[in-house]
Amino acid sequence: MSSFVIPTNDPGAPRNQSTPEVIRGETVDTFLRRDRFVYATSRRLLVSLPNYSTTSSGAVVVFQGQAPLSPIITTRFWIVGYAEKGTVTISLAGYGSTSQVYGTTAQAKSTLIDTAFFGNSYQSYQITVTKTGGQPYVNLYGLSIYEERLTAADLP
Amino acid sequence: MAWKKIDDYNSGDTGTPFQPYSAFVAQGLTQNARSYPSELTRGASIPWRRDAPVRWASFGEPTGTIVWVNCGANAVRVIFRLSYQTVDNHESAANRIGVWYIQNVGSLARVQVAAPANLSNDPFDIVFPCYNGALSGYQAFFIGFQSDPLDSLGVVQVDYISDNVMGLSAAGGAGAYTITTGEKFELVVMDPETYLVQAGTNDPPTNWQIGFVRKDATANAGDAVIFPGGTTYPVIATTYPQAGKSPPTGEVFELGSPKLYSISYVVTETQDYTPPDQFNHYHALALSSVNSAQSQAIPTFRPELANIQCDPYHFGRVWTAVPDALTSTFCVQSEVTGVVQVAFTIFPLENAINDLTDIQILDYDILDSTGTSVFGGYISQNYQFDTFNTTNSFRSSAKQTRALLGVYTVANQWGMRDGLPISDSQKGNQVVFEFPEATFSAVGAGGAGVYTVKVTTGRAAWVIAFSARLV
């Protein structure tokens, strides 16, 4: 049997289960790795934001809310966005903030933010958008925050 | 925590000495699979614009919106957390401003809870027990609010009611209502005995909600936009005095009106679901059951990709033709080949559909991290929808803009904004679209693996409850 690791991708369902009471070693290994994969990757989308545009020259607090976290440990969040001509700042109460700076044409950005958080509670968040100086507007086409998938060290 | 490493077990733990290794593994895997629903409960949050917050007031009936909740497998309870703030010190004697409603659109089961005044934006939780049976998968919930009348703001003279406009004049004297321009969250209460209605009509309603007032620039008078509208009710006679009657007056009351910042939900107390076949390690299909339970769990508990769309002044989103678009970003954390499904509820606002050539075209696309279409270009779908008309207001007209319940332009501001009466909540068209199968790369540093769903329309519509998932 393999050492305890969580597969990067879904190992795929064993295909030789039609024969009863005969269990091949590699089949059991696939079951175990798949079991970890399902558990480790089944995380929550905390929030997905809609598009937003402003010509305001100052920072605009556009969204604010509280996201319920999974009951199992979460230490980092993925923040992915697609925007242009401005800066998007994501603030997580108690854990500071991180910013994504977008260019003059639409770009995709991804950021990991550490929280050292233990789950089963609510996390307050706030999203601020600031137009880049000299640009006519800032467009946020979308921003999503996900719990990061679990690692082998996270599992009990 | 129920989920365990299988090698945490030993034969002693199972209570079955000399248990075959195959049975030991199968039992552990099955226990893990059965724990998925309770360990991997669903939850998310839906924020609305902070810089232009939704402020709700509705006297006639609960008014609100619809949100979609992924209930996972067999949820027996969903907890909604409302983040709202009352905007002044006014409240009823019971420290409440109205009532919150949460209704499962499918079963019509509903809970209602008194809404306390909340000056500090403290979180307010409402528990929705799935009394009519466990809920699974995506479920639509109506979340609405109905106002209490609060403090009296004074007496005003009502000159006429026509269409959705109530003509106001200052009553004068002590206790007079002060007429000012702006959005209002108020109620005019009139005694039918004090005024005349047009001949042949029935008793008019006594309560009229005011959504907006335009004050006359020169006179101490103004026009109030009312809800419900006058076209569905008798209008006041416009010649006074008649038969010894005085010009009618109404007393204006403030309505409970929370500013709503976000709604969160968390699915709790899920029941262990039963694998397709009863576990029995002597049963020939035991491992097949585990196999199938794992396969079913992957799409069921995969993170959602999107859950809402909103816009300033619209609880939901007014969606107009290109270059406007519904957009939402997503990522996956393991490379996966699958299909993305999007779902939303659409209320067409333009051009009644009255022949087969009058169609609504929606174009769907997914862009990769470079902004390039995953499918080599958008995919068009044609739809035929009836134009949406609300029950307790007016049909589309110069005064009633396509923003339906919202404030759309300064000239045409009217009525209750940012919400949908519960009586209209099921008038929308549920659109579900499935993209072709594609392979999505795992998210990485520098924007790799960031995808953007993009949907455009040919004509304006109101959209609520946009959601997306990968299966």
Question: What features would you describe in this structure?
Answer:
The complex is a heterodimer of chains A (156) and B (471). Chain A has 156 residues and is mainly β. Chain A has one helix at residues 25-41, and strands spanning 45-49, 52-54, 60-68, 76-84, 86-92, 97-101, 107-114, 122-131, 138-147. In chain A, the strands form two sheets. In chain A, strands 1, 2, 4, 7 and 9 form a five-stranded antiparallel beta sheet that branches. Chain A has a four-stranded antiparallel beta sheet with strand order 3-8-5-6, with no helix packed on it. Chain A is elongated. The relative contact order of chain A is 0.27. Chain B has 471 residues and is mainly beta. Chain B is 8% helix and 38% strand. Chain B contains three helices and 26 strands. Chain B has helices at 11-14, 21-39, 286-300; strands at 43-47, 54-55, 63-70, 77-85, 96-104, 110-116, 124-129, 138-147, 149-162, 165-170, 182-190, 207-215, 221-227, 249-255, 259-268, 317-319, 326-330, 336-338, 340-348, 360-367, 379-383, 420-421, 429-434, 438-440, 451-457, 461-470. In chain B, the strands form six sheets. A six-stranded antiparallel barrel of chain B has the order 9-10-13-12-11-14. The longest helix of chain B has 19 residues, at 21-39. Chain B is elongated. Mean pLDDT of chain B is 78; it is low at 274-285 and 393-416. At the A-B interface, α1, β1, β3, β4 and β7 of A face α2, β1, β15, α3 and β17 of B.
